[in-house]
Structure formats: C-alpha cells, structure tokens
Amino acid sequence: MAGPAIRTLELARALAADERIGPVTVASLAAVDMADELVRLVPVTGTQQLMELTAGVGSVVVQGDVLGLHPELVHSDVPVVVDAYDPFHLEQLERTRGLPDPVRRAIVRDTISSLNLQLSRADFLLCASGRQRALWLGHLAALGRVNPVTYDRAADLSGLVAVVPFGTPQRPPAARDRGLLSARFPVIGADDVVAIWGGGIYEWLDPLTLVRAVAAAEADAPQLRLVFLGTRHPVPGVETTAEAARLLAAELGVLDRTVLFLDGWVPYDERDRWLRAADLAVTTHWDHLETEFAFRTRVLDALWCGLPVVSTGGDELAEVVERSGAGLVVPPGDVPALRDALVRLSADEALRRASGAAAAALAEGFSWSRVCRPLADFCAAPRRAPDLALDPVARLQLGLRRPDRAAGSPVQRVRAALREGGPALLARRLRGRLRR
C-alpha cells in the first residue's frame, strides 16, 4: 500500500479499538485483496452500493476525490469527515512539470475544484500538522466556512479542523536482521553502514542530491551504502523518478556498488524488517511550496524502527526530528552539507545509537491510537457542522455556496467528469442531479 491506503487502514483500526465506536468498515473504490481482524474491508463498485453501505452509519471519512466521484454523499445528511492530510494540489504543481501547459493547468485546476468541494461539504476536517491547519483554515475562510456559526461553536475552530498526523504502529518493530539486506545485496558487508530511503521516489523529492552526496562521501566513508527501498509505485500508472537516480548513480560510478536499488515495492507488513536491517534513514526534497506543507510519512516508519534520520529541512517533521535529536537536518540541495551529515553518522556509532534512541522515543508520541483521538472523539459523537445544518436562506446570509457549486462551473464539472470516468460517470452524475 501507498501512504493514503496505509493511513486509511490504520485510522480505521484505531477507531475500531475504541469501545465508544461501533463497527468500522473500510470501503475501497478499487479492488480489495486482503482481510483484517479489526475492520471490515469491502470493494465498492457503484454509487448504489456505496449509498447502501453508508445508510444509517454514524459518519463517513473520505480522502481524495470520493465526493466528486460520488456526489450523492455530498447531498446526504451523514456527517462527513474529510481527511486532507495530503495537500495534493501542491504535489501536482511538481508532478505535472513537463506536461503541455493546457494539460498542466487543467489538472491543477481540477484538483483545486476537488478540494473546494471537499472543504465546502466537510463537517470535520483532518490535517497532519500545524502548518497544514493554517493552510486549510485559509482555504476554508475563502469558501466562507470561517463564519460566526462555526466560530461560535469553538473560537479556535477546533470543532471544524483538527490535527491528526500520520502515526506509528502499536506493535514493536521487527528484530534487527542485517542478513536481509546482505542476502539481497551481497556487496553489503558486515561492517558497512546502510542508509535507507524508505519510500517512493517522486517529482517533489530530491534523490539526485542524495546520490551525489553519497558518491562524494566515498573517500571518507567507504563503509557507507545507500539503498532505495521502493522504485515502483504499488498503484499502476503512478510514475516515479527512480530511473533518473539510477542513471546518475551509473554516471558517477557508484551504481550497484555504493548506491543500490531494490526493484519493486516492499509489502506493508514487511517494511519494518527492511528498515531494521539498515543503520539510518534518509529523505531529501526540494525547496518549494509542497515541502513547506508536507508531512513526510516515510519518516514516521524510520522513527518507529529507531533509525536516526538524515533529512532535508523545510518541512515541519524535519524540525521535530532536529529538536528531538533524532537525526541531522541539512539545507535543500546542499551536497557538501548532506555529505558531511552522512559521513558523521556513518563514522560515529555512539551518535547513531543516541539518535536512534531519540527517534524511538519520539515515535511513541505518534502512535496511531494517540494521534487518532480527535477523529475518535468526533466519530463517538458525530455531528453536522453548524453552518451546513442551516436552512438555505441562512446559508446565503453567510455567503456559503452549495458544496457542488464550489467545485466549479457546470462546464468545468462536465469536463472533470469526462476526464475522471468518461461518459458513464457523466451520465451517472446527470441522473443523480435529475433525481435531486
């Protein structure tokens, strides 16, 4: 699973363990090929099935463009929680680089339209950090959702927006087994120090500076090895930039010797075995808007596994790592600084131990059961947002548009439907509008 699916499943498990909350179902718009002891997992193949599934439930939690794909949820009375931990409109600014201008502009515009719909309908909104909370409060204010009615429920808007970070598992990570990596990469020796990149390689990340830094560190840290753990995204069609990193490593003469790539994607339940086989974790990214509001979920797994973290600065989690002593933080794109940090950690075993202990301690505060509390409190006593429960006249007095109108003009919505699901989706949405 990738991050969104991981977060969905782990939040569902945490809710199911709360005795105040009844049974929890995870509904996937794609196939389901696994079972779980705590939650029910079901595939949803159509709107009718989804509406039957959500009839009579206490609340519905959504990610991505579920409301756009199934507008019946928008017009239902069920309390809707929107999980906006991933500001995907900022990701698209990077992901769409290189596309023709009209295509790029349309994609970014449609992601914003999707977010307008979600935030206009949200009875409760989740985000991953304080920075993200400020971002979404600004977005909500622009949509008219920061108004006297929501303000009077809670002057800090805690009744509308809550910070629910990505979390760490309750179970302890796997025991350390260095043989797992050396069996896959015989070039890794018993005394080598392995830095691991524990996630996908995407446009908004910066593996090239890391490859250059590792190559530059060879003279002073010949024992250092870098392993990229995920080179192919588990969702078909999602592109990565792994090939550019591989080509650069070959050009610098370190491919398959110092810089190693594990082809494919490690199964979710096995990721801690691979991380625990390494000595430190590393993540690097560019200095841009996506970074400012990002919450690097891959870092949470590294903390859980007690790995010191070497990270580019600029995001909120990097600041937490630096303050807690759980690793070293360097400026974006700074090859010498990153090289020095890698050399320092690879050469100083005592520093690695101390940073690893700080990482493990930090991870305890991010357990899923702990970070999930605001969502659990809402699901234990679900409610409609006070401004969304008003009659149409009162909503107009607040300047609120209908949620479906927040998603853009009719022409934009028709184009978006055709892009998302073709004529069938457009016809379904038209039938839904006619029924309403």
SSE layout:
Elements: H1 3-16, E1 25-28, E2 40-43, H2 47-54, E3 60-62, H3 66-69, E4 80-83, H4 88-95, H5 101-121, E5 124-127, H6 130-142, H7 148-153, E6 161-163, H8 179-184, E7 193-197, H9 207-216, E8 224-228, H10 242-251, E9 259-261, H11 271-276, E10 280-283, H12 289-292, H13 297-304, E11 309-312, H14 316-324, E12 327-330, H15 335-347, H16 349-364, H17 368-371, H18 373-380, H19 392-398, H20 403-406, H21 410-435
Parallel strand pairs: 1-2, 3-4, 4-5, 5-6, 7-8, 7-10, 8-9, 10-11, 11-12
Overall shape: it is: globular
Rounded to the nearest angstrom, the radius of gyration is: 23 Å
Roughly how many Å apart are the termini? 37 Å
User: What proportion strand?
Assistant: 5-15%
Low-confidence stretches: none
Number of strands: 12
Q: Helicity range of the residues?
A: 40-55%
List keywords for this structure.
11% strand, Rossmann fold, six-stranded parallel β-sheet, alpha/beta, 436 residues, globular, four-stranded parallel β-sheet, 2 domains
Structure description:
With 436 residues, the protein is α/β, with parallel strands linked by helices. The chain folds into 2 domains: 3-167 and 372-435, Rossmann fold (3-Layer(aba) Sandwich); 179-366, 3-Layer(aba) Sandwich (Rossmann fold). It has 21 helices and 12 strands. The protein has helices spanning 3-16, 47-54, 66-69, 88-95, 101-121, 130-142, 148-153, 179-184, 207-216, 242-251, 271-276, 289-292, 297-304, 316-324, 335-347, 349-364, 368-371, 373-380, 392-398, 403-406, 410-435, and strands at residues 25-28, 40-43, 60-62, 80-83, 124-127, 161-163, 193-197, 224-228, 259-261, 280-283, 309-312, 327-330. Helix 3 (66-69) links the parallel strand 3 (60-62) and strand 4. Helix 9 (207-216) crosses helix 15. The mean pLDDT is 89.
